[in-house]
Each structure stands twice: as structure tokens, then as C-alpha cells.
Design brief:
With 523 residues, this protein is an alpha/beta fold. The chain has helices spanning 16-27, 101-112, 126-139, 173-183, 200-216, 262-270, 290-302, 369-372, 378-393, 403-408, 437-453, 502-519, and strands at residues 2-10, 36-45, 53-61, 72-74, 95-97, 118-120, 220-222, 227-233, 236-242, 246-249, 253-255, 275-277, 280-289, 314-316, 322-329, 332-336, 346-350, 358-367, 398-402, 422-423, 426-428, 463-468, 475-477, 489-491. The two termini are 39 Å apart. 46% of the residues are buried. The structure holds flavin-adenine dinucleotide. Flavin-adenine dinucleotide binds next to helix 2, strand 17 and helix 12.
Length: 523
């Protein structure tokens, strides 16, 4: 197979026939001699708003011999292969704590290789969790064990399901992640889209299908089961305690607990597991009309042809703070993502079609241990204080303000040209009272710059909501080159500080499964 790169097709002429014609011209081989093809990447070249192109990479099969060049190469092998196995015997089944992307991918690979993992999850299985979350959004009844942060599928289950990551595709682990998602029900496009996304509605089903496969392969899931202690002898894990009342014997525990499991971090800190505070980012969610974003990004001619547009913005404020857009959800919703009583946090999600009328993203500023303290749990305490303030400001609901009023330091009274829908109830409030003044100033300054990049981004009608505080883990659980913290304890994924987002968390789950497979014999 050959890989043909940089095949450009005008957006309005985008179909397979035209794509194959372009390829045939590029490789100077008649179309009839292209025996098979597979799209490997599809991106957009929108530099000229009067003529926007899709840019393809396509693998083709032909009996003709092609002259190789930068744009015509032999297709690389992109299969994920890991066949190593260790010699150490396991007395008991390995336990994975958490069924987010890190835990699920670690569990899937361990199950596939015969280790029969037990996956414990403090929240509910995804079908029940869906009902619990909807109950919270509709009636503000929070279940502190099963919510947007906790439950089967992890924090990203109710999300846009964006799969972009800055992590490299070493050993084809990323391909394995995307292929696994597709195998269990995600859209084929994620295999080649330059901005792959799944959407909450599809993701829920994918998570359920992965669970069923793990069970078929000999794994076991235990929902509503919270890790409450780890028993350690001679610096080795011997068993764990769940729900404060049951012991599970095991010498291998994967801590794929995500970034919101504050009681678990406290327990680990008390046990003396080495952790340190790490930088993270906080800020506000911003909402616009998606139409306006499309117009600005794609121009009048293409605004309705390319689906809901994403954006990415960065700015360095005069006080040297970096401000940037994060977790942009085209055609999505701002959601109440709280997981603790009397504390409130927001995030964004969208469905697979990205068909709401609103665009949202977090506009966030990085904060460092110098802002909140350098003891391991200081960042968590900083987050807690912000979330308590958000809860009070909104009287228990999402605090919301128009950008114009944020600048004028007054509470808004009604929405104007942007009338967003939230998942969860809201109240108007003065968001100046939420973040420290220095961060508010950085955000206000950034809006002026962002308004120059995307027309209307800084209009006074722009809607803000708070607080965006769970952007990444405020803690790092240290691990060595064998991926262990102490013998048998494997910190993994976003909560442990080794990932940021669905794909990188899944990749870290794969890496941890490799470390376990390299050391132990199957169970
Ligand atoms: C609303 C929202 C939208 C998001 N959108 C995106 C997006 O579009 N794209 C993207 O890449 N990322 C997104 N993210 C971030 C993404 O969800 C995380 O990066 C990812 O889920 C991290 O994976 P993880 O497996 O490391 O941890 P998590 O997904 O957080 O999973 C950890 C799991 O461990 C469980 N757990 C914790 N403690 C215990 C315990 N003591 N005992 C038993 N179980 C426990 C939790 O219940 C949870 O299910 C979003 C997050 C949210 C909240």
C-alpha cells in the first residue's frame, strides 16, 4: 500500500469520486488502477476564506509501481503490538481503581492478555449514572458518588468527547485507542479526522460495550465500590479496603482515580504515598452563538458547509500570565459538573452532532504552587475555596454574567443576543467575586485580544459562567520507570498527573498495562 499525502479537494466538491480523481492525477495512474483506498487523515485548509479545501492523506492499493516522494510514501505499519509477559506469579487478581479512559484501557488490555482484572468504580454503571446526572441537572439533587466526575466511563463521559492530544503516537498506542473506540461503537471518522470527537450520546454506548467485552474476557466490574484504604506491608501492597468495610486481597493496584477524588488523595497522602502539588488552570466558561463563530472562522461562503467550528485562542497578559481557551465544545452546552455538596464547578459537553446553537470553551489562566502553596494537597484546597465561592455566588446554581457587566462589575439581569441553554440551573451573579483580581484582570485583557482574532468574541452580550477549576489534576503521584509508586501500586492517568484528556489518559492506561504485563504472568 502507498500513502498519498496532500490531496486537496475543494469543500464544495468533496466526494469520493473527486478524491480518487485528484489522487489519480497526483500519482499519474489511471483511476481504474486504484484497487482499494482508505482515508487516513482529513484536515481543513481554511487560510483563504473564499476557497477552503479539505486536505487528505489516503492509503491506496495498486499494482502499479509508484515513484516515491514527500507526498507518496510506502504506508507505515500502524498496528499496536505488545506481546511481552513477565514471570512473577500473581496470587490474586489485579485491581484497577476507576473506570475512566485510563482504567478502562488498562483493564481491557489486561483482560485481553488473561489477567482477569477487577475494576472497582465508586460511581454507578453508565446507564444508571445517566439518570442520576439528569436528575441533578433538572432538580439539583447531587449524588456525591455518581455524577459528572464519578461513575463508569470517568469524567469525560458527559463531554464533547474530543480526542485530540499533544501526546505522541509512540508504538501506535493512539491508533489502538481510536480503533478500540470504533470497534465498540464510535464513528469511523475519528480514525482520520484532524479533530476527532465522539459526543456524549455515542460515548455512553461505547463505554458500556467496552465493559461487556472486558467481562467476556474474564474481567469483573464492581460499581458503587470506593477504595477507602490500601494495606501495605514492607512497602508492598497486600490488599485494599473498599467502602470502609471489605478487604480485597491483591498485590497489584492501578490508581486510575481521575483528578476529582479528593478523599482518595487525602487517604494516599496519609499513607505517605509520594505526591506533589502541580500547576493547573482555573477560569470561566464562555458562551457565544455558534453561527457567529462559524462566520468568523469559515467566512460567509462556507459558514453552513463545514459543521460547527472549533477555535483555539491564546494570550499572554501584561502580568505575564498565560490565558487560553480550553476544552472548546462546538454546538455544545455548559454543564454543572459538581461532585461535592456546597461546591460548584462547570465544564462543557456536546452531543455527536454538535447541533446546539451555542459554542462554549473555558477561558483559563494557569496557577502555580506559588499561588496556592506547595504542600501536596494545597492545589485541591485552592480549588475547593473557588468552588465554594461559585456555589454561594449562584445560590446553589451556576453563577452567570454577561461580559459587558463583568467589565462594569455589576450583576446582569437578562441575556441579550446570546441566549444559551445550560445543563443545570443558573443564577445571575457578579463573577468578579469569584477568582482573584489578578486572574480577572488577565481574563478581561485576553478578551480584547480574542475579539481581534474572532469577530464578536468580546461583545458585551457574551455569556460567562463559573467556575472552571477541574482542568487537570492539581496533584502528581510520583512513580518510577517501572510505573510504580511502591511495590504493586501503579498511579495512572489524569488524576495521577500523567495525562490531560481522554486520549492521553487511555494511552497512559495502556502504558501501565504494559508495565504490569512485562512483570507478571497472567492470572
Ligand atoms: C464535563 C467534562 C468534559 C470533558 N471533555 C473532554 C473532552 O471533550 N476531551 C477530552 O480529552 N477530555 C475531556 N474531559 C477531561 C477527561 O474527562 C479526562 O481527562 C479523562 O476522563 C481522564 O481520565 P482518567 O481515566 O484518568 O480519569 P477519570 O475519567 O476521571 O476517571 C476516574 C474514575 O475513577 C473513579 N474513582 C475515583 N476515586 C475512586 C475510588 N476511591 N474508588 C473507586 N473509584 C474511584 C471515578 O469515579 C472515575 O470514574 C472532560 C471532563 C469533563 C468533566
Amino acid at each position: 500500500m502507498y500513502r498519498i499525502r496532500q490531496v486537496k479537494v475543494k469543500v464544495e466538491e468533496d466526494n469520493i469520486d473527486n478524491l480518487l480523481t485528484k489522487i489519480s492525477k497526483k500519482i499519474k495512474v489511471d483511476k481504474s488502477k486504484i484497487l482499494d483506498y482508505k482515508i487516513k487523515r482529513k484536515s481543513i485548509d481554511a487560510r483563504n476564506k473564499n476557497e477552503i479545501y479539505f486536505v487528505y492523506e489516503v492509503d491506496i492499493d495498486t499494482n502499479e509501481k509508484l515513484k516515491l516522494s514527500d507526498d507518496i510514501i510506502i504506508s507505515p505499519n500502524e498496528e499496536y503490538i505488545f506481546n511481552e509477559k513477565g514471570n512473577l506469579l500473581l496470587d490474586n487478581r489485579p485491581v484497577i481503581v476507576g473506570s475512566g479512559p485510563a482504567g478502562l484501557f488498562c483493564g481491557y488490555l489486561l483482560a485481553k492478555s488473561g489477567y482477569k482484572p477487577i475494576i472497582i468504580e465508586r460511581g454507578e454503571q453508565v446507564e444508571d449514572r445517566l439518570k442520576t446526572v439528569e436528575e441533578f441537572w433538572n432538580n439539583n439533587k447531587l449524588n456525591i458518588s455518581s455524577n459528572i466526575q464519578f461513575g463508569e466511563g470517568g469524567a469525560g463521559t458527559f463531554s464533547d468527547g474530543k480526542l485530540n492530544t499533544l501526546v505522541k503516537n509512540e508504538n501506535n498506542r493512539m491508533n489502538f485507542v481510536y480503533e478500540t473506540f470504533v470497534k465498540f461503537g464510535a464513528q469511523e471518522e475519528i480514525l482520520y479526522s484532524y479533530k476527532p470527537h465522539i459526543g456524549t450520546d455515542v460515548l455512553i454506548n461505547v463505554v458500556k460495550n467496552i465493559r461487556e467485552e472486558i467481562i467476556k474476557l474474564g474481567g469483573e466490574f464492581r460499581f458503587n465500590t470506593c477504595l477507602t484504604n490500601i494495606n501495605i506491608e514492607n512497602n508492598k501492597v497486600t490488599s485494599i479496603e473498599v467502602n470502609n468495610n471489605e478487604i480485597i486481597k491483591t498485590s497489584v493496584v492501578v490508581l486510575a482515580i481521575g483528578h476529582s477524588s479528593r478523599d482518595t488523595f487525602e487517604m494516599l497522602n496519609k499513607l505517605g504515598i509520594k505526591m506533589e502539588a502541580k500547576p493547573f488552570a482555573v477560569g470561566l466558561r464562555v458562551m457565544h452563538n455558534q453561527d457567529e463563530i462559524n462566520k468568523s472562522q469559515y467566512g460567509e461562503k462556507y459558514k453552513d458547509l463545514l459543521g460547527a467550528s472549533p477555535y483555539k485562542l491564546t494570550y499572554k497578559a501584561s502580568n505575564n500570565r498565560g490565558v487560553y481557551s480550553f476544552c472548546m465544545c462546538p454546538g455544545g452546552y455548559v454543564v454543572n459538573s459538581s461532585s461535592e455538596e456546597n461546591r460548584l464547578v462547570v465544564n462543557g459537553m456536546s452531543y455527536s452532532k454538535r447541533d446546539s446553537k451555542w459554542a462554549n470553551s473555558a477561558i483559563i489562566v494557569t496557577v502555580f504552587p506559588r499561588d496556592f502553596g506547595d504542600k501536596p494537597l494545597d492545589g485541591i484546597n485552592y480549588q475547593k475555596a473557588l468552588e465554594e465561592r461559585a456555589y454561594k455566588l449562584g445560590n446553589g446554581f451556576i453563577p452567570v454574567q454577561l461580559l459587558g457587566d463583568f467589565k462594569l462589575d455589576k450583576v446582569s439581569t437578562e441575556f441579550r443576543s446570546i441566549k444559551p441553554e445550560f445543563k443545570g440551573k443558573y443564577n445571575f451573579a457578579n463573577l468578579n467575586n469569584l477568582l482573584p483580581t489578578e486572574l480577572n484582570d488577565s481574563i478581561k485583557e485576553a478578551f480584547i485580544s480574542f475579539g481581534k482574532k474572532i469577530k464578536g468574541f468580546d461583545t458585551d452580550d457574551t455569556v460567562l459562567a463559573g467556575v472552571e477549576s477541574r482542568t487537570s489534576s492539581p496533584v502528581k503521584i510520583l512513580r518510577n520507570e517501572d510505573f510504580i509508586s511502591i511495590e504493586g501500586l501503579y498511579p495512572c492517568g489524569e488524576g495521577a498527573g500523567y495525562a490531560g484528556g481522554i486520549t492521553s489518559a487511555a494511552i497512559d492506561g495502556i502504558k501501565v498495562s504494559e508495565a504490569i504485563r512485562r512483570k507478571y504472568k497472567e492470572f
